[in-house]
Write a structure and sequence with these properties.
alpha+beta; three-stranded antiparallel β-sheet
């Protein structure tokens, strides 16, 4: 039951590029937790993926660098649910969310300057604060 992951309208990660393995999970499940491999561990090779354009791949590699292995693989795990199927869906959804966030084009910051009135208010407040402290001093 493998399925492709839809990241955006123009970007779909093919199911063949995603590897999901299952492991024993910690957490709720009682005696079942020691017998059933319900934790889903997803591996996705960003560097060798055919789904990305060169620009998108460079962006994802740069933004997700701390999360990638030395081979350029992104590893996402989920053991939040008791069922294997729900954990599989959770890691696939998280993969789409992580890639969407990495591919979001950030608007360049336009440098701004405080208004003349704001600068004047700040300086007036500083003068008032200094005056207040001067008045508190003990006279010799």
């Amino acid at each position: 039951m493998r399925r492709a992951v839809h990241v955006r309208d123009d970007l779909v990660i093919p199911a063949a590029e995603i590897t999901i393995r299952f492991a024993r999970a910690s957490g709720p499940g009682g005696q079942n937790v020691n017998k059933v491999a319900s934790k889903a561990v997803l591996r996705f090779a960003v560097r060798s993926s055919t789904a990305f354009t060169d620009a998108d791949r460079a962006l994802v590699l740069a933004r997700l660098a701390p999360r990638l292995t030395a081979d350029g693989e992104l590893i996402i795990a989920s053991g939040a649910h008791r069922e294997q199927a729900r954990n599989r869906e959770a890691v696939l959804e998280r993969l789409a969310t992580v890639l969407r966030g990495a591919l979001r084009r950030r608007r360049p910051r336009t440098p701004t300057r405080p208004s003349k009135a704001a600068v004047e208010r700040r300086l007036a407040e500083k003068r008032a604060r200094g005056e207040r402290k001067r008045e508190r001093r003990a006279l010799d």
